[in-house]
Amino acid sequence: MSNLADIQNLDDIRLLVDSFYTKVQQDNLIGPIFNEKIGNQWPAHLERMYRFWQTILLEEHTYSGSPFPPHKHLPVNKEHFNRWMEIFTETIDSLYKGKLAEEAKLRAKNMAEMFFYKIEYFRNGGRNFFES
């Protein structure tokens, strides 16, 4: 039996985000991409991520903006998104259990899939996978 509680407040979001990005920064596959893109701006990035997940999961509207544009030209492929999702899922499952924890994983999965397809779309000059 698990003693894990669900995500409930901003402190839980901070723990999730900090734990996740600590793992990301150290990951051999996606760490170098994140570290190169973010550079010395990690504190600002983490603050944005707190607000992003607070808005999505707690419905406390503290984030505004478009999350996709900074990712548009990253040198990533499906393998990178799979690794990102693997780390995210492992982080959630190690910290939380409940409705919002499951919602976070679903939202992350949907976002990763959308970002991957949009990046591929732009790489292919505005053509999708199904066009020749």
From TrEMBL:
This is Group III truncated hemoglobin. It comes from the Bacteria. It comes from Flavobacterium plantiphilum. Keywords: Heme, Iron, Metal-binding, Transport. It holds the Pfam family Bac_globin. InterPro entries: Globin-like_sf, Globin/Proto, Hemoglobin_trunc.
